[in-house]
UniProtKB/TrEMBL annotation:
Top-level taxon: Bacteria
Organism per entry: Pseudomonas canavaninivorans
InterPro entries assigned: PilP
Signal peptide: 1-17
Transmembrane segments: none
Record key words, sorted: Signal
Pfam hit, one: PilP
Protein name per UniProt: Pilus assembly protein PilP
């Protein structure tokens, strides 16, 4: 038994002696000493970037490329009237700052003062009555029914006169 004990003790001492050896880290110590002896380097400043040219999108008021083009023959083209024109002195209403295409009818409500159309668009649902304006072409609401809102817009005819263009906003069900 004593012999096994001596062999185990000798193996333990050899293992401890192997852990105490500096040979495993000598290459790392040499590299660290070399790095410490180098002169301090300069840190380069961050590069400066030129700002890009600004771009202003100027086609916002043009026809959407996703809506169909309206083609009219010159013979069939309506002539505008000099009597029809937008009122430049009228105060613009809030909903006239938005395209009429973005509005959809979602319902109607009625009370003692009359019937109103509920139109969704411009960030919310708006209650409108006959005579209110919406859209960028001086669109005036002329009739409200349970299924649609009739609007008349005043648009230029391209020859210095103005046309009244009827539009209908139909009820969107399941919205």
């Amino acid at each position: 038994m004593r012999r096994v004990y001596c062999v185990g003790l000798l193996a333990g001492l050899l293992a401890l002696a192997g852990c105490n050896s500096d040979d495993g880290f000598s290459d790392l110590d040499a590299y660290m000493n070399e790095v410490r002896l180098r002169p301090p380097g300069k840190i380069e400043p961050t590069p400066t970037f030129r700002p890009g040219e600004t771009f202003t999108y100027s086609a916002a008021n043009l026809r959407s490329p996703f809506s169909p083009q309206v083609r009219m023959d010159q013979a069939e083209r309506q002539q505008g009237s000099r009597n029809v024109r937008p009122d430049p002195n009228r105060a613009k209403q809030y909903l006239e700052g938005f395209n009429i295409e973005q509005f959809e009818m979602v319902g109607t409500i009625s009370n003692a003062s009359g019937s109103f159309a509920l139109l969704r668009g411009a960030g919310g649902v708006h209650r409108l009555k006959v005579g209110d304006y919406l859209g960028r072409n001086d669109g005036r609401i002329v009739a409200i029914s349970a299924t649609q809102v009739d609007v008349v817009e005043i648009v230029p005819d391209g020859q210095g006169a103005w046309l009244e263009r009827p539009r209908t906003i139909t009820l969107k069900e399941h919205s």
